[in-house]
Amino acid sequence: MSVIKLIDALNIVKTAPRQEARALNVFLVCGFTPLHMQTFLTAHLQLRSPDRSVQVQTGLYGDIAGNLERAAEAGPDAIALVLEWPDFDPRLGIRAAVSRTPSLEELQDSISRKANLIQHVIETRLPNTTIAVSLPTIAARTNVAQPCWLTTGLEMALTRRIADFKTWALGHRSIRVLSSQRLDTLSPSNTRSDVRSEMTAGFPYQLHHASVVADLLSRLIRPPLAKKGLITDLDDTLWSGIVGEVGDEGISWSLERNSHTHALYQQQLRTLAGAGAFVAVASKNDPDVVQQAFRRSDLLLDANQMFPVEVSWGPKSEAVRRILQAWNVGPDSVVFVDDSPMELAEVQSAFPEIECLPFPKNDPQACIELFDQLRDLFGKNAISAEDTLRVESIRAPALLTKEFLEDCEAEITFSEIKDPSDSRPLELVNKTNQFNLNGRRFTETEWRDYLADPASKLLVAGYKDKYGQLGRIAVAGSRADGGSVSVDFWVMSCRAFSRRIEHQCLRRLFSTAGAGEIHFDFTPTQRNGPLQEFFTGLLDRAPQGRFGLSGDAFERKCPQLFHTMKELL
Amino acid sequence: MNDLEERLADCFQAALPGIARSELRNASMKSTPGWDSVVTITLLSLIEESFGVQTQAADIEKLTSFESMRDYLAQGAAHASR
C-alpha cells in the first residue's frame, strides 16, 4: 500500500500529464469539505493511471444525495462515494449540537430514510457507473448515558444498518465496497479523526487516514493488473525441510511438526491456481525425489496444479527462463518466492521485472503478511470461466505444425453479442500485451459507452480442440467508417498463439464487414511485437500508424486454416 | 533562504504552484491571486506535516503571509529549544 504525504500528493497533481492525454473523470461524492481527500484521490488515481489526465470533481457540503445527482449529470468514469455518519444524520457528527437528545427510534428512522434515498439515487440514476464506496470510518458521536465501553442499542442499530448497506451494495456489479478490515490495518480507528480540522474546516480526517482511504478507493476504481504466475521454491518454502536430506516422509507442513505456515502457503497456492494463476516450481533438487514427495496424499495443493516443475541443479534463473517460455508471459507478470536470499538475488538480477518475495520460514506473522500480499498481487474482482481453463491450456503441445493443426479438431466460436455485464472481453482488452493492436485500455464506463454506441461491433472468439478448451481468447472492436471498416482494438491471449486463430478472426472480420478493405488503428507498444510480426507477414512491411488491408491481400497470404466455425447467437 | 524558509517555500510551492520561488517571501493572502481560505488550510496542513507542529485555532487568522508563517515557525522552534 502506498501512503503519500500531502506535499507529495499536491506535487503529483501539479505535474499531471498533459491536457491532450485521455481524461479519467472521477466524481468524489462526500458530505464533508472535500479538501485534502480530493487532492489525495487525484494523486493516487494519477499514480495508477500515468497515461491519463485525472480530474476529480466534487459537489456541495452536506448534500450526499444531491451530490450523487450531480455526479449522474456529470457522467464521470467512476464515482468515489465517501460516507460518514453525519451523512445519514447530522446528529451523529461532531459539528451538531442539539438541545434535545433524539430517541433511538427517531435516529434509526432517520438513518434508514437517508440510506434508502442514497440507494434509490444510485439504482435509478447511476445503475451502470463504477462506484467505489467507503462506509463510515469514524465512530458516530452517540450522545447516550452509558459508558463508552458498553455496546448500546444505537451502536448495534448502526452496525446493522451498515451490514444491510454492504449486502445491498454487493448485489450490484458496478459497486465496490472498501474493505473495513484492510482499513483497520492501515489506519487504526483512533488515528483517523481530526476534530480541530472538522470543526474549523469541515474536513474530518487526519492526513494519513485521508491518504489511506484515497489509496484504497483508487484501487477499487483502477484495480492493478493481476500477476499471472507464481514460481515457487520447494525446500523450506512449499514444505519444511530439505527433501533431498530427510526424504519425502521427513518434510512437513503441519501444526504438530511446527511447520503449519507451509500448509497455509500450499493452501494459498491452491486458491491462486484455482482462480487461473499459473503456479510453477523452480527447485534445486533431484527430480525423482521431488516426484516421490509430490505423491504424498496430504499435499494441500494438487501436484497437477503446478506446471512446469523445473527441478535441476542449474541456476534458478535458467529454470525461471524456461518457465516463462512455457507460460509465454512476460517477467513483469510473475512473482518468485524462495526462502533463500541468494536465490532471490540471482533471479532478481537476471529478471529485474519479476517481483521476488522471500518466504519468511521462521516468522509466522511475516508469512501471514506474505499471503495477504500474494492475495493483493493476484486478486481479481471477478473470476471468469476462462480463469479455470488457463492452467490446462499451457500443457498443450507447444510446437503446432500444419499436420498437428489439421488433426487437432479445433473449433472457434464467434460471438457479436455486446453484453456490458460480461467482464471477460474487457478483461482481455485491459490485460493483453503481446497480441494487442494498440495497447488501448478502457475504464468500465468507457467500455459500456463503446458497447452502447450503435455503430460499434464487438467480435469475441472462443477456442477449443481435442486437447481442451482455451475459452474466450480474442476480442476485436470495430465500426463502419464510410465505405470501409475500422478496427479500434484487437487483442488475443498469448495462450492462443500459433493456432492461426488470428487469421480466422481476420477472415471473419472481412466476411462480415461488407467492405473490401479494413483499416487498423495500430500503435506500436513496447510489448506488441507478436502482433507487429503478424501484420508484417501480411503486409510485407512493418505496420505503421493507421493502415489498411484489403481482403484480397489477406487471402493471398493467409495459410490454410482447419478450424470448424460456430456462431453464438 | 535558511533551512526553515526553504522547507516553508516547498510547502508554498505545493499549495500555490503559480508563484515563483523568488517571490515567495513577499507572498500574502492579500497580495497573492488564488490564495483563499482553502489555500490557507492546505498550507497549515502542509506545515503541520512538514514541521511536525500543531497550529492553534486562534493562530489561523494571523497566519496570512509567508512572513507570518515563517515567524510563527521560528518562534515555535525557539519555544521548543528552551
Task: List key phrases describing it.
A: 569 residues; B: 82 residues
Task: Describe the protein's architecture and organization.
The complex is a heterodimer of chains A (569) and B (82). Chain A is of the alpha/beta class and 569 residues long. Helices cover 41% and strands 20% of the residues of chain A. Chain A is built from 22 helices and 18 strands. In chain A, strands 11, 12, 13, 14, 15, 16, 17 and 18 form an 8-stranded mixed sheet that branches. Chain A has a 5-stranded parallel sheet with strand order 2-1-3-4-5, sandwiched between helices. A 5-stranded parallel sheet of chain A has the order 8-7-6-9-10. The radius of gyration of chain A is 27 Å and the shape is globular. Chain B is built from 3 helices and no strands. Chain B has 82 residues and is mostly helical. The mean pLDDT of chain B is 87. Classes of the chains: A alpha/beta (569), B mainly alpha (82). The A-B interface holds A 5-7, 10-11, 14, 35-36, 39, 196-197, 199-201, 203, 207 and B 10-11, 14-15, 17, 38, 41-42, 45-46, 48-50, 57, 60.
Radius of gyration of chain A using CA atoms only: 27 Å
The total strand number of chain B stands at 0
Strand content of chain A: 15-25%
| Through-space gap between termini of chain B | 24 Å
Number of helical elements of chain B: 3
Q: What ranges of chain A have pLDDT less than 50 throughout 5 or more consecutive residues?
A: none
Count of DSSP helices of chain A?
22
Biggest interchain interface, per-side counts: A-B, 16 and 15 residues
The main pleated sheet of chain A reads as: 8 strands, mixed
Biggest beta-sheet profile of chain B:
none
Approximately what portion of the residues of chain B adopt beta-strand conformation?
A: under 5%
The helix content of chain B is 40-55%
What overall form of chain B do the CA principal axes indicate? Answer: globular
Radius of gyration of chain B: 12 Å
Share of helical residues of chain A: 40-55%
The sequence of SSEs of chain B as H and E is HHH
- What's the overall geometry of chain A? globular
Helix/strand-derived category of chain A reads alpha/beta
**Would you tell me the overall average pLDDT of chain A?**
92
Oligomeric grouping of the chains: heterodimer
